[in-house]
Amino acid sequence: MAYTCRVTNLNNTQQANAFNKVYADAGYGETYDAYASKSDSNNWYCAKIPWWGYKNASGVGVDIDHDLGYWVWPVDILNDWDVYVLTFFE
Fold first, then answer.
1. Contact in structure between 80 and 66 (CB atoms under 8 Å)
2. Neighbouring residues of 23: CB distance < 8 A, sequence distance ≥ 6
3. Do 5 and 83 meet the contact criterion of CB atoms below 8 Å apart?
4. DSSP assignment string, 15-73
5. Paired strand residues for 87
6. Span 18-55, pLDDT tens digits
7. 61-83 in b/e burial notation, b at 16+ Cβ within 10 A?
8. DSSP-assigned letter for residue 2
9. Burial code of 7-39, b = ≥16 C-beta within 10 A, e = fewer?
10. What is 2-89's CATH topology?
């Protein structure tokens, strides 16, 4: 299964800021670590990348981790109140 999601109530500038934050901090060559904490800015995994951008970008500050745990998993993003599903693929 795959989902295309969007964070609610953000304008295009905020969306771009979130992308640019991640691109700057988690660019090519960074280390993949599925057990990296959310505060670790040197190691990344799939769900942490979008979470980092929305949480840490200037003018955004949206936490898309539903359970606010030590890690953010894809299901946490999918279930978060600030996220809605655009499309779903089986």
1. yes
2. none
3. yes
4. HHHHHHHHHHHS-TTPEE-TT--TT-SSEE-TTHHHHHHHHHSTTT-----TT--SS--
5. 4
6. 999 999 999 888 899 999 999 999 999 999 999 999 99
7. ebebbbeeeebbbeebbbebebb
8. E
9. beebeeebbebbeebbeebbeeeeeeeeebebe
10. endopeptidase fold (from Nostoc punctiforme) (3.90.1720)
Report the DSSP beta bridge partners of residue 88.
3
Quick count: other Cβ atoms within 10 Å of Cβ 84?
11
Task: Read off the pLDDT of residues 17-27 as tens digits, 9 standing for 90 and up.
Answer: 999 999 999 98
Joined tokens for residue 19: 């992308």
The pTM (predicted TM-score) of the whole model is 0.92
Q: Look up tokens 């057990």; give the residue.
A: 35
